Amino acid sequence: MGEVLGVLAAVLSSALGGTSIGATRYLVTSIDPLAIGSFRFGIGVLLLLPLALLRGDRWPARGDWAAAIGLGILFFALFPILFNASLIFTTAARGALALSTLPLLTLVIGAALGSEALTWRMSIGVVVATSGVAVALRTDLSSAPSGAWRGDLLMMAAALCMALYGIWSKPLIRRSGPIAFTTMSMAAGAVCLILLSCFRGSFAPVAGFGAPQWLAALYLGAFGAALTFYLWAFALERTTPTRVAISVTVNPITASLVGAWLLHEPLRWNLVAGIVAVFAGIWLATTSGQHVRAAGISASSRP
User: Fold this and answer.
1) How many structural domains compose the chain?
2) SS3 category, 292
3) Nearest-angstrom CA–CA distance, 213 and 83
4) CA distance 231 to 122
5) Vertex 67, ends 64 and 95: CA angle to 5°?
6) Residue limits of the EamA domain (predicted)?
7) What is the pLDDT, as a whole number, of residue 289?
């Protein structure tokens, strides 16, 4: 049951990440991506910290501080910088597809490092889910600016950061707790982004913020950072990094559905087919161990 909860938490986390794209696109017309990241993760830390203290959660041990801070810089500072930089060169659709290589990267790296077994069922599930994203974004992939490959590579580098965070943070999260670990690692990334934003003068346009801009920033902090990445850590505590990573294929699907709902964009057949393929792939990858366990239990019960 714990593993099922982990998968569901990962899917919800990725779905929230998809809705956060709209808030980010709205704010990017007012302030630069560094300042957006500063607000997103700074507010996220301010919301998670009192929750961790009230719950009396177990914080990372002193011997894990360097790893927690390093992973925080990797995921909450370097990842958003690469993510935002990639969209300068490529389209949102191509970027979403490049980010959807995350489960494949996690699967291969995890197998190479021995953190989880490489199974055919999980591999097929990853390919099916990633193909579902490509089908859903089919009509948007054909229009690419010159040199879009640079943005695609930057997004794949961002996916690599996310894959390494998922694999390396899992044992640390188990030794402490998802809220406390996420708070410490997110704080490390937020401090880096805030310092860079101050150095570049990225906060200057904030003086002209109105209620809509502040609401968008608060949404990113509360739902796009605090809740999204708590759920991500909660999932990593309960299931394998690849099963968590494959949920990222829900992100562009959710973003497309939000666009259809808020912007009245048409729901084309390829989006519907992509949704079906994504969830079929997630089901294949996340149920890969159940038959083996059932067979083992059956065998052990024989006289």
Assistant:
1) 1
2) helix
3) 21
4) 22
5) 145
6) 5-137, 150-286
7) 53
- Residue 284 to residues 127, 128, 148, 177, 225: CA-CA distances in angstroms? 10, 9, 32, 29, 28
- How far is the C-alpha of 294 from the C-alpha of 159, rounded, in Å? 34
pTM over 0.85: no
Q: How far is CA 34 from CA 58, 95, 244, 257, 292, in A?
A: 31, 18, 27, 27, 46
Whole-angstrom Cα distance, residue 102 to residue 96? 10
Tokens describing residue 144:
């690419």
Give the pLDDT confidence score for residue 130 in this predicted structure: 76
AA letter at 239:
T
Integer Cα distance of 245 and 264 in angstroms: 30
The tally of CA atoms less than 13 A away on the side-chain side of residue 168 is 17
Token output for 75: 């995921």
Structure-token pair, residue 104: 């494949």
Residue 38, token pair as written in the block:
């500063």
Q: Residue 232, exposed/middle/buried by CB under 10 A (0-12, 13-18, 19+)?
A: buried
Q: Give me the amino acid identity at 125.
A: G
Which segments of the chain have a pLDDT < 50? 290-303
Are the C-beta atoms of 134 and 97 separated by less than 8 Å? yes
The token pair at 28 is 């990017």
**Which residues lie closer than 8 Å to 173 by C-beta, 6 or more apart?**
181, 233, 236, 237
Q: Are 81 and 110 in contact (CB under 8 A)?
A: no
Are the C-beta atoms of 185 and 72 separated by less than 8 Å? yes
| Domain, as residue range, for 15 | 2-300
State the Cα–Cα distance between residues 59 and 278, nearest whole angstrom: 35
Q: List, in sequence order, the alpha helices (H) in the chain.
A: 2-27, 33-55, 65-73, 79-89, 92-99, 102-113, 120-136, 138-141, 148-175, 178-200, 211-221, 228-238, 241-245, 250-262, 269-286, 290-300
- The structure tokens listed for 297 are 């239990």
